[in-house]
Amino acid sequence: MHLRDLNGYLQELAENNNRPWFVMNKPRYDILREEFLQLVTDVIVEVGKFDPAVKFCNPKKAMFRINRDVRFAHDKSPYKTHFSAALAPNDQRRPTQAGGPTYYFQLNGEGRLHIGAGEYIPPPHRLKALRNHIVEDPAGLRKVLNNRALKARYGSIREEDGKLQRPPKGFDPEHEHIELIKLKSFFVWTDIDLDLNKPDLLLPLIVSGLKDTLPLVKWMREAKVEEEAE
After folding, report:
1. Is the Cα dihedral 106, 203, 192, 3 positive or negative?
2. Is the pLDDT of residue 90 over 80?
3. What is the pTM of this model?
């Protein structure tokens, strides 16, 4: 992928986030979008080698649209200023779907790769399943969080997406992982500054970064949703 071209385009889009500019520069966008589609396709192939659950992802469905949903937003800018994609089994990467952990990466106009994995603001049934899984398998979670590669690259599960002030109803306030049980998202992520002059390093960087999240992704997939009584 032509990183310098993408970086320049996204910088200009940030400065001219309006439909007339976007339409005028649509040919540039279309070329970059096709290049990003190829990148996503290549990432799926490589990630599928260590996580077969996502090897049949549809790359077009994995890519996010550049249009922002501004219905309830204070910022009415119509376009995102990054290119992004998420990989999940059966292409279920959105909270309104069945849910489950996803691999995520995005490229922005600051020459930075944002990468991670987990469940971002999962729907209630998945949030409950994850919290129950923490209670049922604290040793397994402890092992995941102490994984050398995961810890070195990502640290721990992030708290920036919200946290309850008190333990959710039915959970022991003294549980060793109660601070994680309070979280509203279960995601690890990091930012990596890219060398725009070395685009060939982008694919292996993304793949190695996602591979480091595999222990967490596998552990989260084990969280089972309780079936509702009829």
Report:
1. negative
2. no
3. 0.91
